[in-house]
Amino acid sequence: MKLKDIVAISGEPGLFRFIAQGRNAIIVEHLETGRRSSAFGSSKVSSLEDISVFTDDEDIPLGKVFDRIFEKENGGLTIDSNAAGEDLKKYFAEVIPEYSRERVYVSDIKKIVRWYNILHEKELLLKDDPEPVQEPEKNISGEMPDTPVAGETEPAPAKPARKKSSADKPARKTS
What we know:
Layout: E1 6-9, E2 16-21, E3 25-30, E4 36-40, E5 45-47, E6 52-53, E7 60-61, H1 62-72, H2 85-95, H3 106-121
Antiparallel strand pairs: 1-2, 1-5, 2-3, 3-4, 6-7
């Protein structure tokens, strides 16, 4: 998932979109209400792109967690974040069976589920597009551009730049 410019601010409910950098603060817009405000340096601001979930092997970026939830729910909303703790753990284990049960708390799962639902409602759950493989362009005759078309001549190789020598300098006047 593309989570660029989406941030969470500790002590503030919901998610925010980064708008601009100010002198002593950043300007953010609340995703649900649309209100703009400042987040000062004393606030802990975390980009969702930088958050990951602890697993038994290696940590999984939050974007990949959202991808898995999206696939499990066939693009729909997920479980309610206010569900019972055991239900949330069971659901999260279905999505990420390898998550670390000792280091991921119910409160973390609630946040992830709440954030997923907010992003889904705002239609911000966009898949990362893999880099498209570009095929070389073909010319009118269907040949590759590196091969000359009948009747065309190959361009001459560029001449290397000539270094200036002392002979190129104008003569100095001596009095």
